Inverse folding.
């Protein structure tokens, strides 16, 4: 499978997993909500989406730069709408990307200040790993809050029933 096709496939998986994770966050019980676990999950999901927006800017796909890398106070409904919008912009970006573009370098300033250079392929790979990492954190928080974590393993999404 060509790399660009793989990245598109992974992004379709990610869109579905973000929706599933948001749904699982709503299963957190009253005790978990009182302990702030529900809000912490929403903040982690917001961070995933903001990181994707940051990279869209760094990749030159948008002029929009998020104000805060770790937003707080977003509601589930706001995150649903944000997830749809981020998915739309990423769809547009990936649709216009070519296999040759994957090896191109992108220069950017990190949130800490230094400048760096990365390939588009490395950047896209990082984004998927970043999402997997934080979805795992969310799953642990959902479980700790008495909820049922979403099943987000890629193999469960990708496998075929025989």
């Amino acid at each position: 499978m060509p790399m660009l096709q793989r990245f598109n496939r992974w992004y379709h998986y990610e869109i579905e997993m973000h929706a599933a994770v948001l749904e699982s966050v709503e299963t957190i019980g009253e005790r978990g909500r009182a302990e702030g676990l529900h809000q912490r999950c929403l903040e982690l999901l917001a961070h995933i989406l903001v990181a994707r927006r940051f990279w869209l800017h760094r990749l030159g796909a948008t002029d929009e730069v998020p104000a805060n890398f770790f937003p707080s106070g977003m509601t589930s409904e706001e995150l649903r709408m944000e997830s749809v919008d981020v998915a739309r912009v990423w769809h547009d970006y990936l649709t216009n990307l070519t296999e040759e573009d994957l090896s191109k370098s992108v220069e950017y300033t990190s949130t800490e200040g230094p400048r760096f250079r990365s390939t588009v392929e490395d950047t896209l790979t990082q984004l998927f790993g970043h999402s997997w990492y934080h979805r795992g954190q969310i799953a642990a928080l959902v479980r700790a809050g008495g909820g049922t974590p979403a099943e987000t393993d890629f193999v469960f999404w990708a496998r075929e029933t025989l």
Remarks:
- Helices lie at 3-25, 30-34, 37-58, 76-96, 120-144, 154-158.
- The longest strand covers residues 105-109.
